Amino acid sequence: MIKHFLNLEWKQYFRSSYWQKSLGLNVLLVFFALWFVLIFLSLGFGLLSIFKEVYPNQDPFVIANGLLFYWLMVDLMMRFFLQKLPVMSVKPLLTLPIKRSTIVHFVLGKSALSFFNFLPLFAIIPFSVMLIKEGYETTQILPWMFALIIVVLIINFLNFIIEALSSKTDLPFLPLIAIVGVLYGLEYFGIVSMTSLVGNAFMGISNNPVLIVIPLVLLVLFYVINFKALRAKLFLDSGLKSKVTEVKAADLSWTNRFGDIAPFMQLDLKLIWRNKRTKSSAFIMIIGLLYGLFSYTQPVYKDSLYAASFVGVFSTGIFLINFGQFIPAWDSGYYKMLMSQNIKYEQYLRSKFVLMMLSVVIMFVLGIPYIYFGWKILVMHFAAAIYNIGVNSHIMLYGGSFNRKKIDLNQRAAFNYQGTGAVQWIIGLPIMLIPLIIFSVANYFIGFEAGVAVLILIGVTGIVLHKKLMKSITQRYLDSKYKMIDAFSQDN
Amino acid sequence: MIQTKDLSKTYNGTTVLNIEELNIPKGQSFGLVGNNGAGKTTYFSLLLDLIKPTTGSITNNNVVVDKSEDWKPFTSAFIDESFLIGYLTPEEYFYFIGDLRGQNKADVDALTSQFEDFFNGEILGKKKYLRDLSKGNQKKAGIVAALIGNPEVIILDEPFANLDPTTQIRLKQIIKDLAETRGVTVLVSSHDLLHVTDVCERIVVLEKGNVIKDLETNPTTLKELEAHFSGSMAAQEEE
To answer: A single GO molecular function, which one (chain B) (predicted)?
Structure first.
């Protein structure tokens, strides 16, 4: 049976038009994966000597255990945003003679093979080997190592439980932030020392290998919880039963001042508000807004203008990156209809542009309080906002014409906790890094004012050329019209 | 109204549609029948410029559809559910289409109110999203949306499928009215021979992408079509 599933997965992956058309992206993903493997490997081999250098009088093994708490928290956060439970189209399988439990075991098993579970191994195993070479007892280190590997898997399954719970709420990342925040708070304010608690737990296992049973039991427990939750979802009626929500229509007549693009803007606003996936990209703006608070309070970044330039681009552009990336895939479900309607492509695209521009302006205005950390930061944010409007928004629109992946806005698909994956953030990186580089170069050779001026200048150029740029972008969309219609009418 | 000339569509060497010439005059109700894979939806997709013809072209009211977009204001269509926007209510959807076709809310309301019978009280004022409606009700909403803005050409792919008997009968009346009293050119495809012969003045049979019959509807047409399709069944059995 598993053989058949693997076969299906393979075909689904390689026969999708997404794969065929975004080879470059896949290459990039592999590159990033290798890059991370390299980082983790060097951490694994290098940590021991780093610890010895930084804390010459302490036992590096104890130090490592003390840091485990932070690692666990970061791992959990990363996974929440980057890792999703593998999606499998189960509907056609349900009427076939396959046990439901087999399907669920397969999906969960597949998730255990995720890259996120292998990555830590590249650090854990070399580090353990180094410890043993250093003279630590093998009987101590081996249980410790296995305990860590088990914990990685525990986090894997815990993440899905959190995702399943939070996908029901309107603020999908709130539960996680709350959990991590509380744990971190306990540590930070010295109420409960989480670091020593976690550290001692691992020390305990290494001193008394029998205790490894505890994480094992936890792992089984989390697996069973996931298993039960998924199996309960595997009944067609829970997927098919239409959960009819009463429509709450908001008054959007204020968009009429935008003239001929008003119908599209109203449509986009409804799109964002009425679909779970788009909604979360709107809520993610809160993260963007608060990101500065996190960054500017760190002593390391406090006086760094480079950090400010990154925060500026990131916080004013977070919606642009999140939403803009999937233009026009948001409309993929009814793209055929749009194409046969009496619309001007240019209006359709301009509506998206105005939406992104508004988000940048709103994010900038909401970020004005950051002036508390110095006027330079506000100036930096302003320059970043102009750059985002003038350059990044156009890049997003242009990039959209290469978009060939359909987005199913329908929330009922089983196993699909819609959200964003790693690919999305990787596309976002150059968009955020290029202005950072531009600023850094000008800042380094001439000065802060020059750095800001260059960013603003480039941004303003983009705004001035808006009409021209839109024209060529529109042409790009027209040229790839048939390809897009074809790709969007495929299911995967 | 619609002229098709030397039209063909080939996918990877397989020709799925090949029409030398097909002219549909203004105000005609035109029916397209054929088995699965005969090329009905392909023809409609070409007519709406959703796919590119391999050779030839379709001219809609003197506009070559894959060269200019000027056919869009007077042409409307409902091909399948992908023409609906799931997260809108039917009213919002109608208004949106109305906006695109230069109709204000009052115009749209005036039009949709004529179809209260057709909607059978299940579409308007229900505060439900289109994605939460049943397949049949989605279809009703899509068909009516295709009537917004006084189009001169209306294309409906399989409009009778998924509809309940009462609605099928009402829909037939609506299509007849459009062609007879308002001079609208209506193109309909269907697997239901009875319905197309009831509704259409002219019926074209497609088979493997070729036009093999072009009939003016008269009382014997249904018999003729039935004979044709059961004949092709017999021919297949012999093979």
So the answer is: ATP binding
